[in-house]
């Protein structure tokens, strides 16, 4: 996969790579790119990522936001960015389940030649069935995601990171 300087690099061997030890290899990418790959951060944050009920979502989002603050205190931009990505993913996944009970947005399997690409690829979107419980979970995660995304130190460090590493 060809990548530009700002894209998340999916060509690295994330199973063996520790980006705390080799931070220069990290790329922010867009949105949630790489959220389930980047170690050791994935391993530190994923155990707390839950959204089944608003109570679980509140506890999860507060814990992940606290990790964001801990990474911030340690000057660890990658950790901050990964915590922000998990908060964003908490919002997007909760929202998906709020809209679609099964979590599936589209009908049918992804054709082999379209796997790994985003979008429906010609499949029909399933009807929405609003689930107010998951919608509340999404709202909770979204609030914490905005706190992280709009944190002045985070924005400053992100800009510096992108200037330094691309």
From TrEMBL:
Superkingdom to which the source organism belongs: Bacteria
Listed Basic and acidic residues bias regions: 111-134
Pfam families per UniProt: DUF4385
**What ranges does the record give for the region Disordered, renumbered to this chain?**
98-134
User: What is the protein name for this chain?
Assistant: Cytoplasmic protein
